[in-house]
Prior knowledge:
With 445 residues, this protein is an alpha/beta fold. The chain contains 17 helices and twelve strands.
Amino acid sequence: MSYVDKIIADVEKKNADQPEFLQAAKEVLESLRVVVDNDKRYEDAGLLERLVEPERIIQFRVPWVDDSGKVQVNRGYRVQFNSAIGPYKGGLRFHPSVNLSIIKFLGFEQIFKNSLTGLPIGGGKGGSDFDPKGKSENEVMRFCQSFMTELSKHIGADTDVPAGDIGVGGREIGYMYGQYKRLKNEFVGVLTGKGLEWGGSLTRTEATGYGLVYMVNEYFKSVGDSFAGKTVAVSGSGNVAIFATQKVQQLGGKVVTLTDSTGYIYHEAGIDLDTVKEIKLVKRGRLSEYKAAHSDAVYKETGDGSVWDIKVDVALPCATQNELDLNNAKALVANGVKVVGEGANMPSTLDAADYFIANNVVFFPGKASNAGGVGVSALEMSQNSQRLAWTFEEVDAKLQQMMANIFKNSDAAAKEYGKDGNFIVGANVAGFKKVAQAMLDQGII
Ligand code: NDP
Ligand code: 2IT
């Protein structure tokens, strides 16, 4: 049995109840065969055994009182997965589906993603099964304060620096930062995605979506093509989807779809982003309201067809894990899709991703193509340490360079191991090698 096969069997045995974590771990381990099965150093150092086991898992009670005076209890998590190359770094997700499997999958992905950014950040993730939908402003604030009261004992500007993810945006980061400051009496860069008036970085809000589109654009440039005139399907309608759409539009492409958890819109004339921002960022409403402003758009509820049935040149899944399965991949390929770039974390199932690659679709896995968000978070940390603030143009230029480097390094790693054009292998191998070398250098810890 090869080293990788042994680790996969072991991970399956120990985490049988964690399907999302197993999915993420198996994808990475499969692509590492080309590196670790031919180099005894890794097995001798028990490197993979250590890599798949989080350094620390913190689970805690989050009690809060709702507007009717009733006590509510949610579950909070922080998984501090790997600190080989820097302090733990990764977002917090507030969504009713959150459980340990999901936080572990996200934390595991974050190790390789953060390594790919080229910046000194380790991997971590956290969150809660709290559902911000339908909660009052005060309820969200009380929840965030209670969550941070416990989390503050485990994080720090040089230890672990959380940020946003699904259900956690500028508002929640603000409430959590306020509580941290009050508890510790310290104004430090312990969270990223902060407001621009109190230590946030310009371009952080846009970074994940912009970075995704810069990555796909790097590919277009490498083959003498561009976004101009391309039709694009985007899913989700949150932070990543909105700013991916904005950048595609700036580069001359036409985004025709967006989704949320209740349905999707198809607007052949092209999405009107101002309407979407008003609904989603200001009113915190539902995408179905889009039709009131654009009667020529089609709205369909979840389950009534799929956003991936629409004929497009480029697909950018930006909502959540496993939102694009094998049937969706087949429909996209039959309709002639050329590029798929993941804005979300693991939005494609394993067989969907394999199908894209087998059918010569250029496929960018999330850990490469959505790394711009955490990359600019690391730049926010640098600015906080220096007590400086860079301009939008400076940060945007660094983001573009970062995405170009990730494209180049993933492409080169895939070629080096005989997997030309396979960005799954390329990104996993390139991300892994740096972390693995750091772990070897630092001894058995
Ligand atoms: P937001 O909360 O801003 O938006 C999430 C969007 O996805 C919403 O439109 C939401 O719909 C939809 N969605 C969430 N969960 C589901 C679900 N279970 N089924 C259907 N639709 C769903 O989150 P972000 O835009 O920040 O995050 C989107 C993805 O990008 C996530 O996978 C996240 O991990 C990833 N990501 C985010 C980064 C960031 O910087 N924010 C960085 C890198 C990756 P609804 O409004 O109905 O809930
Ligand atoms: O998945 C991710 O990379 C994020 N949610 C962003 C993490 C961060 O620390 O900015």
